[in-house]
Amino acid sequence: MNIMDFNVKKLAADAGTFLSRAVQFTEEKLGQAEKTELDAHLENLLSKAECTKLWTEKIMKQTEVLLQPNPNARIEEFVYEKLDRKAPSRLNNPELLGQYMIDAGNEFGPGTAYGNALIKCGETQRRIGTADRELIQTSAINFLTPLRNFIEGDYKTITKERKLLQNKRLDLDAAKTRLKKAKVAEARAAIWAEEVTKSEQEVRITQSEFDRQAEITRLLLEGISSTHAHHLRCLNDFVEAQMTYYAQCYQYMLDLQKQLGSFPSTFLSNNNQSSSIPVQNVSAPSVLASASASLPSVTNSIVTSGFSELKSSSGSRKARVLYDYDAANSSELSLLADEVITVYSIPGMDSDWLMGERGNQKGKVPITYLELLN
To answer: For residues 314 and 37, which has the higher predicted lDDT (pLDDT)?
Structure first.
């Protein structure tokens, strides 16, 4: 037998197997043939694997959107990745904004209040942009890559073995169908007994192959629990990367707020106003305080009188902290929003400050961060 004859016979055998499976599958769908059901444990494992694949894909894709909201940039990165080439380095949005601010500040003049503030804001935005790059890089390595490896590696292997299991099941059921028909024909004396024996042997062989493939598939599927444990560790890494990023951004903005709040009265001189007017620090409480100026004057007078009475007396009051506050030096007391502290005034203290106590800790606190309690 030459190679061509062998290939022709192999193709004919494969075609016969495919046709037999197709007929069996069609008859099952039409309810004209029996179907060997998988055991409940294997069915549960298959369902768990499908669920894992579905949600892993959704989480992975949405994480990519979170880290890179620009769809065009994601497509570009995907193309470069498939071409095994490094994508060109470009400024991200915070870095680009920071560069514009710095350029504008230099144009207006670093010696002016506005120009100086723009430069400081721009430098902070660029630091945030750098932190953003680090978040994307860390998340891609520690979170997205393991999830993608599961989809493109482990789950593809599971799919391949599951397809083989499906084919073995169809072969088994087709053999069972032929055996059933052979027994009916034997009862009618239409075929010899050896045909039944041949069909029974075929059923034993296909049953053995089906059982073996079911065991291989089961072992692969039981690895999904290990996959969940691995993805849990990756999720912790992702959360830590986000925590680091947001902590960096918070610290950068806190430092920037203090820098802007320490600017002298040249802010006002840029607007052709008298430099003798005191400038309010740029902070969340001060902004809120200025916004509340539109409220009825009765409310303002009550709040003001409460602090005034406390300053004029030698007593103390309980106060709720409205916002977090980081002490600028050892004479101040750091605060946490919603905590309750004891406050009082001492002679010679600045009108915008009170002394605060929390247990054994004490220090100056700004009154704009406080709400006096009854």
So the answer is: 37
